[in-house]
Specification:
mainly alpha, 7 helices, 0% strand, flat
């Protein structure tokens, strides 16, 4: 099978970082291997291959510090103390602006939490009930000395009857003392509840609930599920140093590139 004319023509690809038209006289085209070092010396390090990336070009001037390590700009570059009065509080306009900023922030937080107050109350009730059961379970475990069960089981497995009897005797004595304390706590809670039912007005119940429910809800909720969500975020800044740059290079696998 033959063709009377060619199927296509050779088209030269454009040279990266070079706006001049591509012709045979452009640097890097038809260059001999011996001339590669000359091209590199002329600043054309990334001309003839797409795998060669100049990560850190040489700076035109020496580096200068960009942060003096403190939160305020000091007049003395070698100073090590904060100004007595911050710059933004040295005028009435600055003081008024600061008061207005904090007032707006407080108003935003108040409105944010006021809208979500019903949700907070519902979550406090649910997690408060869970907290009651968790508190009872912890108190019973504390009374029964549950952590000693493993040691007694180990003594049984090893056939050490003397060690088992020693542990059993200590557990019995500890349970007796702790049981007495727990009984006193239960009696105090029961007496307090009866007094509230018989003598406390409605505001007394409200005061007890205001103190007890948040504490029980905090005790019952999971550690990673706060009841009250934050209304604002705190900005965080991280200074760029050599360690951060090196970790970024290695994470991007740039440090393994070879010219």
């Amino acid at each position: 099978m033959s063709f009377s004319k060619p199927m296509g023509e050779v088209v030269r690809l454009p040279i990266p970082n070079n706006t001049a038209p591509a012709d045979d006289s452009a640097p890097g085209i038809n260059a001999a291997p011996d001339d590669a070092e000359d091209l590199r010396s002329e600043g054309a390090a990334d001309v003839d291959t797409s795998f060669e990336v100049q990560l850190d070009p040489d700076a035109d001037a020496e580096g200068v510090p960009v942060d003096d390590g403190v939160g305020y700009l000091l007049d003395d570059p070698e100073g090590d103390a904060y100004p007595v009065i911050p710059h933004h509080l040295r005028s009435l306009a600055g003081v008024g602006e600061a008061i207005g900023r904090h007032t707006r922030r407080a108003a935003h937080r108040l409105a944010f939490h006021a809208v979500r107050a019903p949700r907070y109350l519902a979550l406090a009730g649910v997690w408060g009930a869970v907290g009651v059961w968790r508190l009872i379970d912890r108190q019973l475990s504390w009374w029964w000395v549950s952590e000693n069960d493993y040691l007694r089981s180990l003594a049984v497995a090893q056939g050490d009857s003397r060690e088992w009897y020693k542990l059993h005797r200590e557990v019995k004595e500890t349970r007796r003392v702790r049981g007495t304390i727990l009984a006193g706590q239960a009696a105090a809670v029961l007496a307090g509840g009866l007094l509230l039912v018989k003598f406390a007005p409605w505001w007394g119940w409200a005061a007890v609930a205001t103190v007890a429910v948040p504490w029980l809800a905090h005790f019952g909720r999971p550690q990673d599920h706060p009841i009250i969500a934050p209304a604002t975020t705190v900005p965080r800044f991280r200074l760029l140093n050599h360690d951060v740059v090196l970790r970024a290079y290695y994470s991007a696998a740039w440090a393994t590139l070879r010219r």
